[in-house]
Specification:
Structural class: alpha/beta
Strand content: 5-15%
Radius of gyration: 19 Å
Distance between the termini: 17 Å
Strand order of the largest sheet: 1-10-9-8-7-6-5-2-3-4
Largest sheet: 10 strands, mixed
Length: 329
């Protein structure tokens, strides 16, 4: 009887997920249940024989005097998804505030130093992925330092997730990530419009989001793009995935930071798992698919409890239960 109940629950979950995810263009996957299974394939099992850091050491580049919540949200989300260590590279004034949010984070107050690129570069051999942009701000000196950090990361082939004001920098200098296929961009509507105008040199066609995301990815040299919205549209320039898992009507600030932090971990896991586990499909596409679904599930669960007063802190509390529901049930 227990086996039958488990089978029924699994079948019901698959029915929901089958409605929630769709694939468009290029190489089609006939069975959407198999698509979701690809995310499960990349998740490393928990084991007593593992050592600290083996399942992910993630760096967050961002955090200035005005914005200290965003890098915290991204960093703590990375830990709650399953990274072992989470580093935040921020400005000197932001560091004490971010440290006060959680003792779990390793905080480096270096981002506004003249030697910031060198200071971050020293840590790069120890990191599996970088999330660039949460709480960064647009001060010229900081953006210049981040430009150098991105160049150093590319030289070491480190995966980078770029969000928020990191996307502002990319819109000013698309060559920074042109052709770097270990990069994932996570723009919202306005950020996506800005990127399209900078890269494609023409207005965005709002009538076909899938085509627009595909074109932008191709123009950037098959960099993976996640356009956040009512449905999240994801493309690596070859395939287009759409994630429409139910979230909520609440749009408080910080939800994108949860997505970018989660994505940093999943990108590392997907690349380590390799194309065998993703059945030949882009590991970054699979990772983005997983991060979008997790963020939406956290949003949905938090909203069920808190309604209009839902905040990103409530969503972060749901990461563990949501991860278990989607990927471990």
């Amino acid at each position: 009887m227990a086996v039958r109940r488990g089978w029924v629950a699994s079948w019901a979950c698959q029915r929901v997920l089958k409605r929630a995810f769709s694939l468009h263009k290029a190489h089609s996957i006939k069975d959407m249940d198999n698509t979701f299974q690809l995310v499960r394939n990349i998740i490393p099992p928990l084991a007593t024989k593992k050592h600290k850091g083996q399942d992910g050491r993630i760096g967050i580049v961002g955090g200035c005097q005005e914005y200290t919540g965003a890098p915290y949200f991204a960093a703590i989300s990375a830990l709650k998804v399953g990274a072992d260590l989470s580093h935040v590279f921020c400005t000197r004034e932001a560091a004490p505030v971010i440290k006060s949010y959680s003792p779990e984070l390793i905080v480096h107050p270096v981002l506004d130093r003249p030697d910031a690129v060198h200071e971050v570069e020293r840590w790069l051999p120890r990191l599996h992925a970088l999330v660039v942009g949460p709480g960064l701000g647009r001060e010229d000196a900081l953006l210049k330092n981040v430009e150098g950090i991105l160049e150093a990361s590319k030289a070491r082939a480190i995966p980078v997730v770029i969000d928020a004001d990191g996307l502002w920098l990319v819109a000013q200098q698309p060559a920074l990530i042109q052709g770097y296929q270990k990069a994932v961009l996570t723009p919202n509507h306005m950020e996506f419009t800005r990127l399209c105008e900078a890269v494609l040199r023409d207005p965005v066609d709002g009538s076909d989001r899938r085509e627009a995301v595909l074109r932008l990815s191709q123009a950037l040299g098959n960099v993976t793009v996640v356009q956040k919205g009512e449905q999240d549209v994801i493309s690596d320039g070859k395939q287009v995935l759409e994630c429409s898992l139910q979230g909520s009507n609440r749009r408080c600030g910080g939800q994108g930071d949860l997505l970018s932090g989660s994505l940093g971990v999943l990108v590392h896991w997907a690349l380590r798992a390799g194309p065998e586990k993703t059945q030949g499909f882009s590991p970054l596409l699979v990772a983005a698919f997983g991060a979008c679904s997790l963020t939406r599930q956290c949003n949905h669960q938090a909203f069920q409890k808190h309604g209009r007063s839902t905040m990103t802190t409530n969503m972060i509390e749901e990461i563990g239960p949501a991860f278990s529901k989607l990927f471990e049930t």
